[in-house]
Amino acid sequence: CHFNWKWDSDKGALGIVLETSESYCCFNSKLGRLINEQGRAQIGKGWGSSSNPRNPDCSGFTVEELQGLDFSAIDFTEFYGDIK
């Protein structure tokens, strides 16, 4: 999973934080996560807005976005260790 944000989700009457929440985008595979994390950075596609952390953008890539990725610039080291 890719960590997006952490925020105070519940505050008491005195402003004391009673609960914090975290937002993640989870993928079916490590390969999918790596391509999403590094590919999004290449094309400027974010994960949504920290001002609305309950609704992250976990969408995949369009065909056009995939065609715009430079796969030679993606570091697959973390994935290679799993297939050895």
The total beta strand count reads 2
C-alpha Rg, in Å?
16 Å
> Mind summarizing the main beta sheet?
2 strands, antiparallel
Q: Give the termini separation.
A: 22 Å
Succession of helices and strands: EEHHH
Please indicate the percent range of residues in DSSP E strands (runs of 2 or more). 15-25%
Helix proportion: 25-40%
Strand neighbour order, sheet with most strands: 1-2
Overall shape: it is elongated
Secondary structure category: alpha+beta
Counting DSSP H or I runs of 4 or more residues, the number of helices is: 3
Mean pLDDT: 93
Low-confidence stretches: none
If you had to describe this structure to a student in words, what would you say it looks like?
With about 80 residues, the protein is of the alpha+beta class. Helices cover about 30% and strands about 25% of the residues. The chain has a two-stranded antiparallel ribbon with strand order 1-2. The radius of gyration is 16 Å and the shape is elongated.
